[in-house]
Amino acid sequence: MDKEQFIINAFLNSINGDDGAIVDNWCFSKDLFFENVHFKRSWMSLEQIASKALLINISDAIVMNAKPKYALLGLALPKNLSKAEIKALQKGFLNTAKKFNIKIIGGDTISNHKIDISITLISEIFKKPVFRKGLKIGDLLAFSGNLGQSLKGLELLQQGKKLSPNHRFIKPKIRKDFFYEIAQKLSCAMDISDGLSKDLSRLLKINNLGISWYKNLNSYELYSGEEYEILFAFNPKYENFIKQCAKKHKVKLNIFGQAVKGKYEFVGKEHHF
Amino acid sequence: MDKEQFIINAFLNSINGDDGAIVDNWCFSKDLFFENVHFKRSWMSLEQIASKALLINISDAIVMNAKPKYALLGLALPKNLSKAEIKALQKGFLNTAKKFNIKIIGGDTISNHKIDISITLISEIFKKPVFRKGLKIGDLLAFSGNLGQSLKGLELLQQGKKLSPNHRFIKPKIRKDFFYEIAQKLSCAMDISDGLSKDLSRLLKINNLGISWYKNLNSYELYSGEEYEILFAFNPKYENFIKQCAKKHKVKLNIFGQAVKGKYEFVGKEHHF
């Protein structure tokens, strides 16, 4: 067992291995977004940093079929940030919160030598939640959108280039309306944060199943992390419905395989910062 | 306005300025516990670090009169931690969670160059919550326990000395049973994390009141942070009841002043790491 899995098992698997934890009608999720772990300050504006920190948490809630309602912000901020810089962070949080109808209700701020953000999202389950568990033999496996852009953007940043404000790496696309519409027909879902291959291996492992591939995916598609597209599965009888929803919401639908008996081992390399 | 208050106003005061945020019957609280901000690894064992990280969050929930039920752990951990070190952290979290009947239901782990812990606690409100707001003219102001030990411990650590495992700085005393019993009679309460003087100034400011002092407190009592004793106020008619409860729970009760019209400005210096 690798150390990452050891840590996950030690702390987090007591109830679930999901993007969020469900208690009554609530979904609780928490993601860390740390300077020099997830971003460099030279790559993004402070407004973009705050916005992405919140978006990656929103992504977790949405793939559970939960509607984000409240957020707690944990902010570790350098003492030498100016008031203008603090206002830029504030703007990123508030604008993104507003767009998703989220109220910031509390949190904690401390001084630190770098910008480390920890967000907890409290989301409401209106219908039934969608878990990572639930995959059945014969289910079709699919992901939304085009994968690979996040890794390509990271490579450009590491070469000292700049990305446009709408680049995937700066501003993840959240497939809220599409996902809420298809959620009731899904067997399982999760967001793609560590790359399709790594996240697929987790999804299949938790369900004790393997995959029969429909197409060859390139290494960008397989290994690009921080995509925040959605990996999901459904019974083939819902294929037409899901295709129609994808068309309606202008989301590219990629049905790339089918769940079968067997195992799928992650063998590639995670490519994210 | 100082920058700390600027940050608090920018992000956290949209609903409250309390230790926890109340939504329906739930209290949500979040505290960060960061290496080289709140602790040095040479000062405490990993088990003690994990335990204190959870205890300071539990303290927030209890002073709102909420019962901690669930926790989300955000763990930023160095890659070079050994499995034995990870197990020591795990032991600290699990033992403390068990003592307070808390289930760890999820979170996030990432690699970082130091140990930074962010905990969210989800607590249930069984009766009425106690807020920072609610102080009335004539209310008696009190704190539990003896203040000053935390700062004295910090000074010893900074001189390279060691503290015993039961020292206040290592293991805050949580006055759970005492607080739950007196909570219904209190006008307001908060825990003492930044020193009595600083926290009192916040309590009085939010209530637009001042204090008439009953006794002179020394600078350790006024400025020692991370005490996690409770600052609270009550109508004088409850004085006997509260004295009896303190006696029953063997908690030292210090009635140090009375709320009056006026202002109280914090003028000292915060003494915590």
List strands and helices in order, with pairings:
2 copies of one chain form a homodimer.
Chain A: H1 3-11, E1 21-23, E2 26-34, H2 46-62, E3 66-77, H3 83-99, E4 103-111, E5 116-125, E6 140-144, H4 149-158, H5 176-182, E7 186-191, H6 196-206, E8 210-213, H7 219-223, E9 230-234, H8 239-248, E10 253-260
Parallel strand pairs in A: 3-4
Antiparallel strand pairs in A: 1-2, 2-5, 3-5, 6-9, 6-10, 7-9, 8-10
Helix pairs in contact in A: 2-3
Keywords (chains A, B): ATP-binding, Kinase, Magnesium, Metal-binding, Nucleotide-binding, Thiamine biosynthesis, Transferase
Domain PurM-like N-terminal (chains A, B): 17-122
GO molecular function (chains A, B): ATP binding; magnesium ion binding; thiamine-phosphate kinase activity
Describe the structure.
The structure is a homodimer of 273-residue chains. With 273 residues, chain A is α+β, with helices and mostly antiparallel strands. Chain A folds into two domains: 15-125, 60s Ribosomal Protein L30, Chain: A, CATH 3.30.1330.10; 140-260, Phosphoribosyl-aminoimidazole Synthetase, Chain A, domain 2, CATH 3.90.650. Chain A is 32% helix and 26% strand. The first copy, chain A, is built from eight helices and ten strands. Chain A has helices at residues 3-11, 46-62, 83-99, 149-158, 176-182, 196-206, 219-223, 239-248; strands at 21-23, 26-34, 66-77, 103-111, 116-125, 140-144, 186-191, 210-213, 230-234, 253-260. The interface between A and B is large, with 54 and 54 residues. Chains A, B: ATP binds at residues 107-108, 132, 193. Chains A, B: Catalyzes the ATP-dependent phosphorylation of thiamine-monophosphate (TMP) to form thiamine-pyrophosphate (TPP), the active form of vitamin B1. Chains A, B: Pfam families: AIRS.
